[in-house]
Amino acid sequence: MGVLRTACVQMRSGVSVEKNIAQMSDFVRDAAAQGAIYIQTPEMSGLLQKNPKLLMDIIKLQDQDPVFAASAELAMELGIWLHLGSTPIKMADSEITKKAANRGALFSPKGELVFTYDKIHMFDVVVDEANQWKESNRFQPGENAYVFDMNGVKAGVSICYDLRFPQLYQAQAKAGANILTCPSSFTKPTGKAHWEVLLRARAIENGAFMIAAAQGGQHEDGRTTHGHSMIIDPWGQLLGELAHDEPGILVCDLDLEQSANARKRIPNLANERKFSISMI
Q1: Which ranges of 150-245 does DSSP label H, i.e. alpha helix?
Q2: CA 206 and chain centroid, separation
Q3: What are phi and psi of 207, to 5 degrees?
Q4: What's the pLDDT at 116?
């Protein structure tokens, strides 16, 4: 299957869409200059704004969104597969629902929009007193999962909190995905405790590469994110990590045969059996 050079863009997105686009563009160009063919940006690349009113005042419909437009132009200019991890998008009924979409997208080397993915699982949690989130108050959850094809290389897509739902990744692996993706904006406490463990587990369970671009550091809207973008091989080993929360890029080569080899050695996807649970 060959080797695929991939890259994660780690960002510290703020409340200015224009500044975020500029930061993203610089890093994407740098990664492409190093030969990356598939480049992934983190969740909320275009805007991190936790104030609901300010969020809704800023964001645009997809066909008017400057982050989508910039991503398409970058993909075409550089001849790359550009995976916009996500950005907040105004929905047609947002005046009624008061909700946006947390929407990721893939752009082809021709600059064509291949698909969009709306984050399925909402981050409705109380981690501690300083980290209480009700994402479903601001975002409408998606309903469809995807496996996309990059010239014969198949990959599954997810966003951040999706990482805690292993059935999503198993379904993608069974549909042929040898690469799993999880662009994220993990909080500092959950990232420190669970980020690497969950990413490695999803890779191991499915005999697949995991590519996870992250937000990192203290953001203008007051939140703090973990950083530590990672690329993990199908045996669960780290191919590369940005071991900090500063903006930057991570470039790694994926030997795609490793996925088939891992699944041959541990064929758990094929060995799964149905069962029932009895209460005693």
Answers
A1: 166-174, 188-190, 196-206
A2: 17
A3: 55, 45
A4: 98
Q: What's residue 1's pLDDT?
A: 67
pTM of the model: 0.96
CB 171 within 8 A of CB 85: no
Structure tokens at 49: 């704004």
Catalytic-labelled residue, pool 90, 99, 119, 188: 119
**Within 13 Å and on the Cβ side, how many CA atoms surround 47?**
27
**Per the residue annotation, which of 8, 90, 99, 160 is the catalytic one?**
160
Task: Specify the pLDDT at position 133.
Answer: 75
267 closest CA partner among 238, 234, 232: 234
Cβ neighbours around 135 below 10 Å, total? 17
182 is catalytic: no
Consecutive 10-residue runs of the chain (280 residues): their mean pLDDT?
94 98 98 98 97 94 98 98 98 86 98 98 83 87 97 97 98 98 96 97 98 98 96 98 98 98 97 95
* Fold of the 3-265 domain: Nitrilase/N-carbamoyl-D-aminoacid amidohydrolase (3.60.110)
The H or E element containing residue 86 is strand 81-90
Identity at 138, one-letter amino acid code: R
Which is the catalytic residue, given 43, 90, 99, 182?
43
Tell me if 91 sits within 8 A of 97, measured CB to CB.
yes
8 tagged catalytic? no
